[in-house]
Amino acid sequence: MFRHCRLGAQYYEDLKTKYENTSDNLIFHGRQTEGLSSFYFKSNLFVLPGLGGLAISESMAYGLPVIASTADGTEKDLIVNNITGILIEEMTSETLFTQIETLYNNRDLLKKMGENAKKAIESSYSFENYYKNFKESVKYACKK
């Protein structure tokens, strides 16, 4: 069951109204700015209907699959649709509800997406990758 779901503000009230009394396992906290790591550790899913590349990366690093709308393009660089999360082209309350229910009803898929998300971030943002890119940047800068 979903225990905690980090959710962007845009659809918070709609989702809260629809799901708040359906389960004791679903808790709505509203906007949080401090102690985020405890929320990430308690969550099963991260939903971001608007902009926020850093929030997507953070969520994936904690092993959370992400449901996001296509916004500024950042999300397309981070989320592989149906592998590390779900990208929704035209976000509406109904499309968001449908995708959340899909993952709620398919715990194996939810877990696998979370594992894939964490692996994707770990491989992209490893020290080795950082060092390789830094070294290439220095080589490029020295040629100029």
UniProtKB/TrEMBL annotation:
Glycosyl transferase family domain location, by residue? 16-119
Q: Which organism is it from?
A: Lacinutrix neustonica
Classify the source by domain of life. Answer: Bacteria
Under the heading InterPro entries, the entry gives: Glyco_trans_1, Glycosyltransferase_grp1
A molecular function annotated in GO for this UniProt entry is: glycosyltransferase activity
- Please state what the protein is called: Glycosyltransferase family 4 protein
Read off the SUPFAM superfamilies from this record. UDP-Glycosyltransferase/glycogen phosphorylase
